[in-house]
Amino acid sequence: INRTINAPIRALVETTRRLSEGDFDAQAEDAGGNEINVLNKSFNRMAAKLQRLMEKVEEDTRTQEQLELRLLQEQINPHFLYNTLDMISWMGYGASNEDICKVVASLSDFFRLSLNKGEDSFTLADELNHVKSYITIQEYRMRHIQFRLEAPRELLNLRVPKLMVQPLVENAILHGLRPRNYRGHITISCALEQAYLVIRVMDDGVGFDEKLLGERTEKSTSYGLKNIRQRLAVLYDDRGSLEIANRPES
After folding, report:
1. Mean pLDDT to the nearest integer, 92-97
2. CB neighbours of 137 closer than 8 A, spacing ≥ 6?
């Protein structure tokens, strides 16, 4: 277990630390033919794309490309990656190989879908699969959170901007359910309303002071929410929007 799981994961954690400090030459080494190597290859592809985007942004200041770069940097948040790899390492001592393989595969899918072969949009099905990978990991880390996903089959082939939903789920966990010791429910629903695709992420967490709603909407401490708002404005002008509503428990 130490040779095939823990040692490769510790090596990837160190590589992640180097990347987070700006070393874009950091590369994960070949770990053989197991699931860890799939994750290493996904990490290397993402590091390479980050470097290419940074070089392009230096030459081209178009807003959309800057936002994509910032979003990718947010996606490989060192804390999220480190915590997940640390969890996998500990699972190596007590959990089944099936559990370990499931989490590693989910993390690999998470990064593979984040890259999306350089394209700016997903089908709704791919966007939701990206969220499912994130949810699978969080279900192992935070076992008292229950997730529900509602999406009619006829909407799954619609094209949507990539990586819009996962930051909303993360925000619901951190700001809604963390104060309740990560206990509660998160529902993701998709519907077509008056020719608009509406995606809702709802949690039954602690809510927040209505007086802070405007400030939180415009000056959110979550960069993910700011990024979503800016990208919608760039892509759709006034036809796309991000709305935050507070409905505390009665």
Report:
1. 61
2. 84, 87, 103, 106, 107, 110
